[in-house]
Amino acid sequence: MGCAGSRAKGDDSSKRIRKPKPWKHPEPITRTQLMKLREEFWDTAPHYGGRPDLLSNLILLSEIWDALHAAAEADLTLAQAIVDSAGVIVQRADLTICYDERGAKYELPKYVLSEPTNLIDDN
């Protein structure tokens, strides 16, 4: 088993991404609440995951988080193109666990990738 950064560009070992399996939030949640959770996650995500110890790592960290954010909001075909072009190594096909080329781990909660089955109207 090689290290995460040893995967060559164009290597067929990259995972094809897929929609997350249906999931249920602990309690019914409105679309407004879901959007607030997503916004809070993306505002704070760059402060977690990755290795921000060097300036070059900070730049890579920001680029990977930006790519993951764009992929989370895109359709599957575009999301696949985004993660492939950014060099994101997909550990779980639903994008909940990914790595960058240096082996830093990025974890995405399901609520940024899809809607829960118990989403309720705001009204």
What are the SSEs and their pairings?
Blueprint: E1 29-30, H1 31-44, H2 55-72, H3 76-85, E2 89-90, E3 97-99, E4 105-107, E5 119-120
Parallel strand pairs: 1-5
Antiparallel strand pairs: 2-3, 3-4
Enumerate how many helices there are, as a single number: 3
User: Rough shape?
Assistant: globular
- Taken as a percent bin, the fraction of beta residues is 5-15%
Sequence of strands across the biggest β-sheet: 2-3-4
Distance between the ends: 52 Å
Average predicted local confidence, pLDDT: 84
Q: In percent, how helical is the residue content? A: 25-40%
Q: What is the H/E string?
A: EHHHEEEE
For the CA atoms, what is the radius of gyration?
A: 15 Å
Question: How many beta-strand runs?
Answer: 5
Describe the structure in your own words:
With 123 residues, the protein is an alpha+beta fold. Helices cover 34% and strands 10% of the residues. It has three helices and five strands, in the order βαααββββ. The chain has a three-stranded antiparallel beta sheet, with no helix packed on it. A two-stranded parallel sheet has the order 1-5. Helix 2 (55-72) packs antiparallel against helix 3 (76-85). It is globular. 20% of the residues are buried. It comes from Rhodamnia argentea. It holds the Pfam family UBD.
Features:
123 residues, alpha+beta, three-stranded antiparallel beta sheet, 5 strands, 10% strand, globular
Short description:
The chain has 3 helices and 5 strands, in the order βαααββββ. With 123 residues, it is an alpha+beta fold. The strands form 2 sheets. Strands 2-3-4 form a 3-stranded antiparallel β-sheet, with no helix packed on it. It has a two-stranded parallel sheet with strand order 1-5.
